[in-house]
Amino acid sequence: MFTVNRERLLIMKQTFHQILIILCAATVISLIFNQVRPDHIRFGGVPLLLNNDLLQHGNSAVREISIGNAYKILMQDSSLLIDARSESDFEQGHIKGAVNLYEKGFDEWIDEFLSSTDPETTIITYCDGIHCSLGRELAEKFFSVGYNNVYYLANGLTRWKEKLKKDE
Fold first, then answer.
1. Cα separation of 91 and 102, whole Å?
2. What is the pLDDT of residue 159?
3. Dist. CA 65–CA 52, nearest whole Å
4. Which of 47, 81, 96, 124 is the most exposed place for a label (fewest CB within 10 A)?
5. Is residue 101 within 8 Å of 109, Cβ to Cβ?
6. pLDDT of residue 60
């Protein structure tokens, strides 16, 4: 009788392991399938990304994005490219299609922005120069007021121009 219980226990253990393996495989397959769908489901307001081009900055919830991925996102309907530099810097040159919202003036324009911009809008911020942090800081401010799909282009304007020159 003792051997029968031991055999049953072994069968139950094997069955449990098989169920666990099947559940793990199903989860991985469903996440991959979801990612390749054009209308993929967002988890927690942030898309699941299987791409190393997006980097998390320290403990921040905003992510750096590559020029290539930024371009792909900007081709979608519900995205916005924001130049975080001053108006005078913006007038001297900016990425085509960008709007100028100076990071230092955030408190002055944020209420109007919130009332006219859907919180599901994907926002990509940028500034210029290796040491310029205005784009990242503005992205963090957008995240803090409820925008979850926020990215920044480090040294954005310079890198964007370099990419355009390379593609010519």
1. 12
2. 87
3. 9
4. 96
5. yes
6. 58
Amino acid in position 89: D
Torsion of CA 66, 69, 72, 78, to 10 degrees: -90
Determine the pLDDT at residue 4.
62
Pick the closest to residue 44 from 66, 19, 61 (CA basis): 61
Spatial distance between the Cα atoms of 108 and 75, rounded to a whole number of angstroms: 29
Q: Which amino acid is it at 29?
A: I
Q: Report the candidate in 97, 106, 158, 88 with the shortest Cα–Cα distance to residue 127.
A: 158
Amino acid at 124: I
CB-based contact 127:95 (threshold 8 Å): no
Place of tokens 């397959």: 29
Residue 154 phi, psi dihedral angles, 5° rounding: -70, 135
DSSP state of 168: -
Q: Which residues of the chain have pLDDT under 70?
A: 1-4, 36-60, 77, 167-168
Residue 110 has a CB neighbour count (10 Å cut-off) of 14
**Whole-number Å distance between alpha carbons of 30 and 40:** 11
